[in-house]
Amino acid sequence: MKVAVIQLAYGDDESVAERTDRVVALVEAQAGHDLVVLPELWPAGGFDYGRWSERAEPLDGPVATALSAAARRAGVTLHGGSIVERGTPVGDGDHGVWNTSLVFGPDGTLVARYRKIHRFGFGEGEPMLMDAGHELVVLDVPTADGPPVRVGLSTCYDLRFPELYRRLLDDGARVLVVPAAWPMRRVAHWTLLGQARAVENQCVVVQCNTAGTHARHEMGGHSQVVDATGNVLAAAGAEQEVLSIDIDTAAVDIWRRDFPVLADRRLS
């Protein structure tokens, strides 16, 4: 499975339209990959809470439409990071706004939507402005040289909650994708927790973080791909960078067979 991780850098001086054009060009340059991954909330600004409302859009909005077209032109499965989704509130008192990851197939079709379950902010930011998602999402991603790969979705702060990943594992995930807007001051947690999720679930973990500085927050970068043994296969620095890597997903099954720790689980 050939994966491209686009660690996008941005600041406060770029319009959403300009950033979208830049992202589309980066995605289209990854033709030949099976899966391309973008970071969390790149259109709206991961920490730019004050502008989320004006930058919210429906699932057929301009950013989603541009990503769909980019996936189709590149012929890749595109994990578009996440957008601020605006829709119909589900329950009384809800906002009708979510931190939503969108995945497009190689034909541009929206094949998966994941609304972030764990909202970061300790009562501010996401918890104040957004609704929590409730559905786990695992999908089959086609590959050029083998069978489809079962991929589980999560976003940023979710990484701190291992029970979510156990559920994705039980739904058949062999690869876990984590787009993020993780700040530099806690970047050591970002890399450590990614390795932990890989080791404990015997899954490949693909982490795509944001670079640059926006809304006075320096972002952490250091995107990485970790194999099912915890070995870091590829790692980015602090600046904008694209990681391209061939992941041997068959090695996941071999490792699970040779070191069958998951068979000894007692609690669920």
From TrEMBL:
Signal peptide: none annotated. The keyword Ribonucleoprotein does not apply. Residues 1-249 form the CN hydrolase domain. Keywords: Hydrolase. Gene3D superfamilies: Carbon-nitrogen hydrolase. One of its GO terms (molecular function) is hydrolase activity. PROSITE patterns: CN_HYDROLASE, UPF0012. It holds the Pfam family CN_hydrolase. InterPro entries: C-N_Hydrolase, C-N_Hydrolase_sf, UPF0012_CS. Belongs to the carbon-nitrogen hydrolase superfamily. NIT1/NIT2 family. This is Putative amidohydrolase.
